[in-house]
Amino acid sequence: MATSEKKNGGGGATTAHTPDYETDPIVVGADGSPGGEDAVAFAHALVGTGARQVIAEGVPFEIGPSAGLIGLALREGAGTLVVGSPHRGRIGRALLGSVAHHVLHQSPCEVVVAPRGYARRQHRGIHRIAVAYDGTEEARTALRRAEALARDTGASLHLIVAEDPVVAGIEDGEEFTPLTNAGAVLKAGLASVAPSIEADGETLEPAWREGRKSIAEALAEACGEGTDVLVAGTRKPLDRLLMGSVTGHLIDLAPCAVLVVPHEEGG
Predict the structure, then answer these.
(1) Which of 94, 120, 234, 259 has a 20 to 30 Å separation from 102 between CA atoms?
(2) In terms of CATH architecture, what is 3-14+122-261?
(3) What is the pLDDT of residues 225-253, one digit of tens each?
């Protein structure tokens, strides 16, 4: 049974730079495909009330989509790289894995995977932002990014806490230290949110431990249809390779856009 609390008011990887989300451009690989159109449309939603430039360019075929997107982000000094989701059942997820998953590990900036079909919807902007939160350094970084996006878009925040290191990237079947104080972690996370931002949250039942669902599935299910974007952090690149990545599965499963915040060097 989920519990909730509410607070009203308020590969090697390319080194990530410290982004300025007020000025650094949002870069999109626009290839004319439905996924590319979704990415362009969602990139404009990310701007909110800010003045960030959206740069949408095609990627030369001979370079390859992953390398081309990373090169484009580097060239433009991007703060955000948006890619489309070509979900088409199992085959679509395999295609996504060959591009978005590779970009996720090598991007010099945060990566957003736009939801499939977004360009064809009646746009409602970004009103609800979920955050995968467990109190770790990576989770706090994700929460700060979610707050910045909430200020730009006027969205509310919804913290989702699971009973294990969600953002640290532990997969089911791995050893982990149980998060026995999930309620306290949620309360502390909500207390850290700026009073001007509406925020609430919930803790998830660890059903994946009984084989009923994975952590990524539980997080995706918690987002529901009312969430516009899920923000999650990542571990250091080597840790991601050794331990797997919950965020890697989230971009396959989430019903909304997924914004992946890179690990901060030196942290």
Answers:
(1) 120
(2) 3-Layer(aba) Sandwich (3.40)
(3) 889 999 998 765 544 443 346 777 788 78
Tokens of 192: 């850290």
pLDDT in tens, 186-206: 999 999 999 999 999 999 876
Pair 31, 39: CB distance under 8 Å: no
Structure tokens at 91: 């085959």
For the chain, the domains span: 3-14+122-261, 26-120
Supply the pTM of this predicted model: 0.81
